[in-house]
Write a structure and sequence with these properties.
Elements lengths: L11 H6 L7 H16 L5 E12 L2 E13 L2 E8 L2 E3 L2 E4 L1 E9 L4 E13 L2 E14 L2 E10 L3 E9 L5 E10 H8 L7 E16 L2 E17 L5 E16 L3 E16 L2 E4 L5 E10 L2 E11 L3 E10 L6 E10 H9 L13 E13 L1 E15 L5 E13 L5 E7 L1 E4 L2 E3 L2 E8 L2 E4 L3 E5 L2 E11 L6 E12 H7 L8 E12 L2 E4 L3 E5 L2 E11 L7 E12 H5 L7 E2 L1 E12 L2 E12 L7 E3 H10 L8 H7 L4 E14 L2 E5 L2 E3 L2 E7 L7 E3 L3 E3 H12 L10
Antiparallel strand pairs: 1-2, 2-3, 2-4, 3-6, 4-5, 6-7, 7-8, 8-9, 9-10, 10-11, 11-12, 12-13, 13-14, 14-15, 15-16, 15-17, 17-18, 18-19, 19-20, 20-21, 21-22, 22-23, 23-24, 23-25, 24-27, 25-26, 27-28, 28-30, 29-30, 30-31, 31-32, 32-33, 32-34, 33-35, 34-35, 35-36, 36-38, 37-40, 38-39, 39-41, ...
């Protein structure tokens, strides 16, 4: 018999349907090749070639297929090549070739095969294996086994009955690197490693439509690392189990367990809990939309809840829901909220407790939120903030004009200043919230009245602004709480309009306070990085009519009576410590207020100006005979820059500066000569002057 010329088919499934339409396409295509060769007979070297431009099934497409069978006296050899293979939109390879020795005693058995794959997500692959095809009594079976050093192992068995029913079983292992880049769209520069093992079972009535599928997928020693190190994982173990049934549309159940390893997705880091994290959901495909419904998640140590998801396979934004979620505030704040705060700031040092229940939904961003926080607490290590018995509940919706919420606590303290219980009612809107009515927060025997409070969390004006009044705050309680020298009297203040935005606080008007019989006004207040590691305060301060007697009575400085005016310009505090300012303080005559100073205060001012106190035994003995001395003018100026303080007084005098200008007999003047002094040294002098001895009290 003469040799058979190569046959070329553009659609081999046409030939397959001549045998049995119910046979799966790829199995029938290969079995047809076997039958055609059997019909031809053998006489010397013969070649049979079948080609197809395209072959496709449910979700997959293969291009440029070619099967070549060559038979000689030494035996039969099969050469099978394919071009691009796509699963969905993913390219699994661009060309593959299988060569093997063919046995045709009972069906086809392709042994000692070698496989070469190029253009795959794993790179170039080489392996070995075998293929076995059988067709008996109208039924067919195909078995494929391949092993390779770089792509693990694959075992596939396909059976097709004469009635058209088919069943597929598959198992194997694959390196995760190529799998992740192919199906998860990870950037090519990411380093990925680990192994994935699977078991797959599927069955149906035709190759183009499966009816049932079951998959078990396990990933072990999973690792990935982005070039910048902001995303990484190590030693992760995941287990996925899913099954589905087709009855007009696909639906089924999927379960995921996370048992080992840690994941960094900056700024968050999560470690697998000791008891595995579990997720379970019902899934279905409706048209071009994948849906997860009735989902549950159990995160030991954090909490539990339900979820749902709708994900369009084509252009579209996923819609998600979190339902009846209950979490513990301690791990929620530590692992989810704290990483979003500025390192070293107050928020980064807080600890939380309590339980939070919430539901949320969104499409891309957040659309709606309901919450119920009960018996929660916040605290910082040094007591800068402490809140106990915190409660809040409410609902917010992106499209709803207004909704209600409440917030409150049993007790709280800010910078160790205790405040009373709080209950505030809020009106929420899509961009933020505002007070529904003013409220008063009790503190230190007085209160802080909030006339207005409005918060915006979106847009260019995000932040908050408030106005209010402080009234009747006890200086005695305040100084005792802050461990300051004891002051007397009360403080009242007005807050015209204070605003916070992007970590900064500023005022549009002056803050004023009444203290020690006078008034202190703060203008141009601006605090940068308020909750950060290094807050910076800038302001101008004006002092008018402050009585010196209650002020000096609190210190071991000595007694001074009189009325003080002053200004502090261009004040800059870095981390609440002075960096720069221009300050000037001086006394002003006031009706009914004497201007007197004690011997101890004279000594203290002399030391502050750089002297060693009143010199001379007889001079000191003489001055000690007087309790107080009258003065005409008292004043001091300090300009701080680059850690150096430049001093001045009420007027210059013979190369120095007059700090105290006395009057009457005996007259005491204090003159300073050291104009420039290190700021830390000046503070040390002030501390030494305050601690130098008992204060002297007089009337007046």
């Amino acid at each position: 018999m003469t040799a058979i010329s190569p046959w070329v088919f553009s659609r081999p499934d046409t030939m397959v349907r001549q045998r049995r339409a119910a046979t799966p396409k790829i199995v029938g295509w290969l079995l047809a090749l076997c039958l055609e060769f059997a019909v031809s007979g053998v006489a010397g070297a013969q070649t049979l070639e079948i080609r197809a431009a395209r072959l496709s099934g449910a979700g997959w497409t293969a291009q440029h297929l070619r099967a070549t069978l060559t038979t000689t006296a030494q035996g039969n050899r099969l050469d099978w090549a394919t071009g691009t293979l796509r699963v969905g939109k993913r390219v699994l390879w661009r060309h593959a070739r299988l060569q093997c020795v063919l046995r045709t005693a009972s069906g086809w058995s392709c042994r000692q095969g070698s496989l070469v794959v190029g253009g795959s997500p794993w790179g170039a692959l080489n392996g070995h294996g075998q293929v076995r095809l059988q067709r008996v009594g109208g039924s067919g079976q195909a078995v494929l086994t391949v092993r390779g050093a770089r792509f693990g192992s694959v075992h596939v068995r396909v059976r097709s009955a004469a009635t058209g029913q088919w069943r597929l079983t598959s198992a194997g292992s694959l390196p995760v690197a190529g799998l992740a880049h192919a199906f998860m769209r990870l950037p090519a520069a990411w380093q990925v490693s680990g192994e994935a093992r699977w078991r797959l079972q599927a069955q149906g009535a035709s190759w183009a439509r499966a009816r049932r599928i079951s998959l078990v997928l396990s990933g072990s020693r999973l690792q990935f690392n982005s070039p910048d190190g902001l995303q990484a994982a190590q030693g992760v173990a995941l287990h996925l189990r899913g099954e589905g049934v087709y009855a007009g549309q696909w639906r089924g159940v999927a379960q995921v367990r996370w048992t080992q390893g840690g994941i960094l997705w900056s700024p968050w880091y999560w470690q697998a809990p000791v008891t595995p994290l579990r997720m379970r959901a019902h899934w279905q495909q409706k048209g071009s939309v994948w849906q997860l419904a009735g989902g549950t998640i159990q995160w030991p140590g954090l909490g539990h809840g339900g979820f749902a998801l709708q994900w369009p396979t084509r252009n579209g934004v996923p819609h998600w829901q979190l339902e009846r979620v209950e979490v513990a505030m301690a791990p929620l704040y530590a692992n989810w909220i704290k990483p979003l705060t500025s390192p070293g700031g107050l928020a980064a040092r807080l600890q939380a407790s309590g339980r939070l229940r919430f539901s949320a939904e969104g499409e891309g961003g957040l659309n709606a939120l309901q919450w119920d926080l009960r018996d929660a607490a916040l605290s910082s290590p040094k007591g800068l903030l402490a809140v106990t018995g915190a409660e809040s509940r409410g609902a917010w919706n992106r499209t709803r004009k207004a909704s209600a919420a409440t917030v409150g606590w049993r007790s709280a303290a800010l910078y160790r200043i205790p405040v009373g219980p709080l209950h505030a009612e809020l009106a929420l809107h899509p961009q933020g919230f505002m007070l529904r009515q003013p409220f008063t927060l009790a503190m230190l025997g007085g209160g802080l009245d909030f006339r207005r409070l409005a918060v915006r969390w979106t847009g260019p004006r995000s932040g908050f602004d408030m106005s209010g009044d402080l009234h009747g705050v006890s200086m005695t309680q305040l100084t005792r709480t802050l461990h300051w020298p004891p002051f007397t009297g009360t403080v009242s203040a007005s807050i015209p309009d204070l605003r916070y935005h992007a970590g900064d606080i500023h005022t549009s008007g002056e803050l004023s306070a009444h203290v020690f019989g006078g008034e202190v006004r703060v203008g141009y207040l601006h605090i940068e990085n308020f909750l950060g590691a290094l807050p910076l305060l800038r302001a101008d301060v004006e002092i008018r009519g402050v009585r010196l007697k209650p002020l000096t009575d609190a210190f071991h400085f000595g007694y001074i009576s009189g009325v003080l005016d002053g200004n502090v310009r261009h004040l800059a505090l870095l981390n609440w410590s002075p960096e720069a300012f221009q300050a000037e303080f001086h006394t002003v005559p006031a009706h009914g207020v004497s201007q007197e100073i004690s011997y101890a205060a004279v000594q203290s001012i002399t030391k502050l100006g750089g002297g060693n106190g009143i010199g001379g035994f007889f001079q000191g003995l003489f001055l000690r005979m007087f309790k107080t001395f009258a003065y005409a003018h008292l004043g001091l100026g300090v300009t701080l820059k680059d850690g150096m303080a430049e001093l001045s007084g009420v007027r210059p005098a013979d190369g120095g500066f007059v700090i105290l200008q006395g009057q009457g007999l005996p007259r005491v003047d204090i003159v300073g000569y050291n104009r420039r002094v290190d700021w830390d040294e000046l503070l040390a002098r002030l501390h030494a002057a305050i601690q130098s001895g008992p204060q002297i009290h007089t009337g007046g």
